[in-house]
Amino acid sequence: MKKYICISIILSILILSLDAQQENSIPGLETNQEALKKWQDMRFGMFIHWGPVSLRGTEIGWSRGTHVPIQDYDNLYKEFNPLLFNAAEWVATAKEAGMKYIIITTKHHDGFSLWPTDVSDYDISSTPYGKDILRQLSDECRKQGIVFGTYYSILDWHHPDYTTRYGGDPRPVEGSDMNKYIDYMYHQLNELITEYQTEILWFDGEWEDSWNHEEGIKLYRYCREQNNNLLINNRVDKGRKGMQGMSKSGFAGDFGTPEQEIGNYNPGIPWESCITIGKQWAWKPNDQLKSVKQLIHTLVLTAGGGGNLLLNVGPMMDGRIEQRQADSLKEVGKWISKYGESIYESKAGPFMPGKWNASTMKENIVYLQLLKWPDGSIRLPDLQGYRLKKVSLMNGVGLDFEKGKKEVLIELPDQAPNPYCSTLVLEYNKPLSGVNPIELK
Ligand code: FHN
Q1: What is the mean pLDDT of residues 290-310?
Q2: Cα(440)–Cα(351) distance, rounded to whole angstroms?
Q3: Which atom of ligand 1 is nearest to the CA of 282?
Q4: Does residue 281's CB lie within 6 angstroms of at least one atom of ligand 1?
Q5: 409, 401 in Cβ contact below 8 A?
Q6: How many other β-carbons are positioned within 10 Å of the β-carbon of residue 200?
Q7: How many whole angstroms from 429 Cα to the centroid of ligand 1?
Q8: Is 388 in contact with 297 (CB distance < 8 Å)?
Q9: How far apart are CA 102 and CA 134, in angstroms?
Q10: Residue 156 has pLDDT above 60, yes or no
């Protein structure tokens, strides 16, 4: 019987690894590994959901035809005049938070383009503000050394040729022409790639029947032909498993996109959790913001699972990022300025994310992130085949530890070094690879 159990375990591991490999098994859709490593090493980015809808404080795209009548929503651009928009301030806020890349909604489901696109007048050039938001932001990102990326919604509830209506849109679908819409979309994407040099294409809105797998494959190929260094998420195609965000095998996309949740422990497959700092993606007056502790724990648990965190802010109608949101990000940045070494360029650690911990690793070092400060000491299981040489507080003193038969007892000071999350540095006798992950009780 034991023999059969072993065989079934080996088979299931083989199938899982094959499935992971099949992620990139479609010819011509292989991920650019150099671009992927650069992105994974960054671990932390800023998501920005913004547009004329900030004038109403309702959700971008989704409030068109629901909380805001379509006629009203579609004319908001005529009032949009964010005179206090300052790209340098936005980028500086991201940098101070420890964020290494920015992804902004260039066109959300409402069809409004934040740049002067050649193929539509429903764009920033038709607003009282008139200036090119994307040009200012992309130039400032390059100036400050932040990677510039762009969100683009495949679905477009405003465009007459997009063949799915939403929010009680009375316009007939008959006469709409998805092929014409796809040409429009390709032209816009070509602008984002060639004129704004986006490095990450963050697609969304792939779930409706107007879009299909064949078009997803074609679009991925097209974008990579324009720039082979591009990184493209899995929402370009139809393989996303709901809000879990990971892909079924055989679909295009370089990374999975769990949404509003921390992705599962998955060191072998690239993924990024996109999560709002408040409740709403676009700016909402008096939105309930996550605490700084929640934000830091989210970052740590995401990195501990081998993923990136794309944390979303929604700028206000006048172009400023709300002070509350900026203040929270500044606090996160203070933590990262002390503990960032345990996040950037790290991999998922051997101690899986749990209620009170996470871990990341680099070579022979494990960073044990303590979300709650244990009382006096902690016991850690041995890592089979590895010898623990040294334990210390990150940026701090060495700690005594006592080896038992299959575990080690680490003495801890009474006071947690950091009120949000404290980090231990565990030095082993050799680089850790292929360690079986352990769940700490
Ligand atoms: O419908 C959008 C939503 O507005 C938001 O942009 C998120 C961000 O990932 N994506 C879609 C919902 O999955």
Answers
A1: 98
A2: 7
A3: 4
A4: yes
A5: yes
A6: 23
A7: 45
A8: no
A9: 12
A10: yes
Q: Looking at ligand 1, which residue's alpha carbon is closest to its atom 3?
A: 281
Distances (CA, A) of 392 to 372, 378, 389, 422: 17, 13, 10, 11
Residue 58 structure tokens: 């309702």
Distances (CA, A) of 419 to 314, 334, 360, 371, 402: 27, 12, 20, 9, 26
Measured distance CA(86)–CA(392) in Å, rounded? 42
Q: Residue by residue, what is the 3-state secondary structure of 86-118? A: CHHHHHHHHHHCCCCEEEEEEECCCCCECCCCC
Torsion, Cα of 17, 310, 190, 318 (10° steps): 170
The predicted-structure confidence for 214-234, as pLDDT tens digits, reads as follows 999 999 999 999 999 999 999
**Cβ neighbours around 310 below 10 Å, total:** 25
pLDDT tens-digit map of 390-420: 999 998 999 999 999 999 999 999 999 999 9
Structure tokens at 60: 């971008």
Closest by CA position to 109, among listed 73, 72, 57, 69: 73
CA distance 203 to 201: 6
Task: Give the pLDDT score at 242.
Answer: 84
What band does 434 get if pLDDT is binned at 50, 70 and 90?
confident
Helices (H), 175-291: 178-194, 213-226
CB 301 within 8 A of CB 353: yes
* DSSP element (H, E) containing 41: helix 33-42
Please, which residues bridge with residue 200 across strands?
Answer: 149, 231
Whole-number Å distance between alpha carbons of 162 and 143: 37
How many whole angstroms from 306 Cα to the centroid of ligand 1?
Answer: 22
| Under 8 Å between Cβ of 305 and 261 | no
Alpha-helix residue ranges (DSSP H) falling in 275-322: 292-304
**Distance of CA 419 from the midpoint of ligand 1 (Å):** 32
Best probe residue, ligand 1, of 64, 243, 273, 281 (max atoms within 8 Å of C-beta): 281
Q: What is the mean pLDDT of the chain?
A: 94
Q: Is the CB of 204 under 6 A from ligand 1?
A: yes
Contacts 24+ apart (CB under 8 A), 122-127: 122/74, 122/77, 122/158, 124/80, 126/77, 126/78, 127/52, 127/77, 127/78, 127/80, 127/81
Q: DSSP character for 74?
A: T
Q: How far is the CA of 176 from the centre of ligand 1 (A)?
A: 24
pTM of the model: 0.94
